[in-house]
Every structure is written in C-alpha cells, then in structure tokens.
Hints:
By secondary structure, this protein is α/β, with parallel strands linked by helices. Among the domains are: 35-172, Rossmann fold; 422-515, GMP Synthetase, Chain A, domain 3, CATH 3.30.300.30. Helices cover 30% and strands 26% of the residues. It is built from 16 helices and 26 strands. Strands 2-1-11-10-12-13-14-15-16-21-20-18-17 form a 13-stranded mixed beta sheet, with helices on both faces. The protein has a 5-stranded parallel beta sheet with strand order 4-3-5-6-7. A 3-stranded antiparallel beta sheet has the order 8-9-19. It is globular, with a radius of gyration of 23 Å. The termini are far apart.
Amino acid sequence: MPNWPKGEIYFHTVIQANARIIPDALALAFNGRDYTWAEMHGAVEGLRRGLARAGVVHGTRVAVFDRNSDHFLLLGYALAAMGAVIVPINIHLRSAEAAYILGNCRPSFLVTNDEFRQIVDQATADLENRPRIISRGEIRDGDIGWEDVADGPSDIEISSPKSWNDTHLVLYTSGTTGKPKGVLLSHRRTVLDALAASAAFGIRRGDRFFCYLPQFHTASWDWIKMFLLQQGAVVLAERFDAANAIDLMQRYRCTAMLGFSVVLKKLIEAPEWQGADMSSMRFLGYGAYDPSNLLEETIRQFRERGATEMEFALPYGLTEAGPFVLIGRPEDVRGRASMLGTPVPGVDVALLDDDDREVPRGEVGEICVRSAAVMSGYLDNPEATAEAFRNGWLHTGDMARQDADSFYHMVDRKKDMIRTAGENVFAKEVEQVLVTHPAIAECAVVGMPDDVYGEKVVAAVVSRNGETDATGIQNFVRERIAGFKTPKVVIFLDQLPRNALGKIVKPELREVIRSANIQ
C-alpha cells in the first residue's frame, strides 16, 4: 500500500476505499465496458505500474489530447496516486493553440490516438522539449503503446503524493480574454470541494451520473468525483448524442446529469425521447448563466416520462474556484433566470467594487471567492495569480447583485460590460428581456464599436418561427428596460457560436457581426 501522509485525503483514495467496501458494485461504464470497484481499482493500479516503468514520477506532467474514454478517466486517477499531474487539452483547438499550451505546461508525455495524431504532430513539431507520445492507436518510432502502460510489472517502484497540496490536475482556461492559463488544482482543493458540493446537491449513496461532459473541462472531473465519493457510478459517453444518451440513461438506470440549453433541447426533441423511460432520473444540474427558457419544459418532459422525483439545481462556478461556488435550489430559482442562489457550505462570497470594497446590498459588484476549493494559482504565471488573488479574494470577473433575501443574481461578465454614451449596460440584463420574446429561441448581446456612442448594443437572435422583425424586438425591449439598453442593431442568425459545452462564445460572435459589416 502506498505510504501516503496520515490525516490527508487524496483525489484517488476513493477508488481504493470503495474497492474494499463495495468491490462488486458498478463504478464505471463506457462503450460496453463495465467496471466494478474492484476492477476499477485493479485498472488504476496496473496503470500506475505501467506509467512508472515508462518513467512517470512525482510531479511528472502527462498531457492528453483525446476524446472521453474510460482510459482517460482511469489515467487521471492513476497519475494522482503517483503524485503526478494530468493536463487535458481541448480537442477543438488548432495546432498553434495546442502548441502554446504544450509549450506552457511542458509535459513529459502526451496521450492521443489516430484521430488527433496529425494535429498533435503539428503542435509538437517545434517544441524545444517534445513530449513522448503514448499512443492509443498506431505505434510509431519512439511511441509508447497504450497497452504497454495499461499494466506494468508488480516489482516496479512507484511514486506517491507528498502532500495533499500537490497538484494533480492542470486545466486551461478558455482563453476568451487572452492566452489560456493553466489552472493548478490540488488534491486538497478537489476533495474538500467534493465533500461540500455532494452534500449541497443532495447526492445519494449509489446515484448514477450520466456524463458526456468533455474531460478537458472542469465540469467533467468535478461532477464525476461527487458521485464516486458517494459510492455511486459514472456512465460515461465519448460525446453527447441524444439517442445514445437516452439509451444509456435507461439501460443503466441513471439518476442524474448536468445539462446545458443546447444539450437539453436536442434531448427532448429526439425521436427516441417520446417512448423513453426516465423513471430512475431525479436530479438535473443546469448551467444558470445561459439565457434559455428550456428548463421548466425539460423538467416537465422528464416527469411525463416517469421521473416523478425530478428536481434541478443551478450551480455557479468556474475553473479557478471550482464549479460549486453558488447553488440555486429549485424552490428558490423557479421563474428567476438570473438566480445563482447562495454559497455552497464552506465557500465565502463577497461582491466587491473596483477598489475591492464590498458594495451595498442590491448594487452590482464582482463575485469574489474564498474557499478551500480555489486553485493554487496559474502555472508559471505569478503576475496573473497575484491579480486574481487581490487582497485575499479570488476575483472571478463575473458581476452580480445580492437581493434582500440574500440570494445572488447574475448580471454579466465584467469584461463583457458595454459602455455606451457614458452608461454601463450589462448584456445579461438585455438577454434576459430578449429571451422572453415569443419569437426568440436564443439570443446573445455584445458591445460593438460606435463612432458616436463609443460602443453600441448589438443583439444576435435565433428566431423561433423564422420571424425577423428587428423593430418589433427593439420596441419589446424598450418597453421593459431603459432606452439606452435597447439594442441599436438586431441581427438574425441560424445559430449562435458555441464551445464544446454549449456555452456561447462572444468573441466569435463579434467576428460574425464584423464580417456581416453591421452598421
């Protein structure tokens, strides 16, 4: 047994504990491969030995450029048990973007497969220290085959974590406001976050989580850990496909999932949904910051298909602070799209102004966080780390207000605030009005340069019924909020640009608007 420091709990120890307590219960399912807890523990131990033989030691970084798989998840736990670090990379990046991240994190190894080999070769071609490839596909000169690390010899010496403050995971921010930054996440952060969040969300012993969330994103790792901690199981999909999702949730009697508007829309509109048995489902996490009116309809649809216990919660968080900062419970958020709820136990939240002074209740301030779940810092970026942790608070860049009942409400991203004719306009406020228009299915609001006003408010709209009455939409908004907040321009799109999680990517939207030469 590894000699871990006494009194400290690690990301991976849940695997060992559950293998001892409930060895024959389901722990993980992926693509027809089902693992009991004993089998999952055995697979993790085999990987530890194989990785050690390949040269992985305490502190070694192993990047992954691959789709979701059981191997990906097992690798994360195996590396954590060695005191090593997994660095998942967004598979939607181009080679230059991936090269920047690889140059920044300097991994010793990189796991990939044939689908991504060309982009990996391009991304690593000019690196000073090129990582050794662990291939889950064709084996080329210098590669290590996945099967060669999947089960190593029993007599190999294997490293362990030295402290629960050791980093076990580096996740890169989306880079929407500049170059991506590597967020350092420790065992301490991950475990304490899971303990607090699983209680806040009411995760039950034996719950089964359907997970399609990409493993390069914090949501995947952090939602999975809650269910494993509660001796539950994870039913993992390579990517989201509505028909496959419905099949897996029924077959494995899943009880929970995390959804976003684009995913839920595809789910309840799929032909297979009409005859689905969702009676095992009882919990839906939902991305509260995405303007949508799908949530109530989705809950209704689940209940009609047997999920009589179905409830939902709106989690708010971010990679740097963990995805569980605030939680909006069903009884608090119904009918209030901007609701973020209240802090998860153990999380301290304040709304601060530009001088880091707390704003009066009811006024807008930046969400700032103190908790055990915040990151250790940004990889090799002390300046950005110091800026993020000004005056002892992690600054999120998200703007919110607190109402008289102590609930927090999202207003906007601080850097997405539109400054027009000397007035501040929060895009989310305009979006929350637009989405109530009966002809609008989806919307997003951005600021664009304007010679007269400095910036003008521009709304991009996906029409529900093909309606394209911009003037009518502007009048609709003007009747409900101040005239200066009304979009000066309304454009109609077939779809809004989104990332892999379905989140609207506003920098790309601005490029779409620029290319359309909107005046």
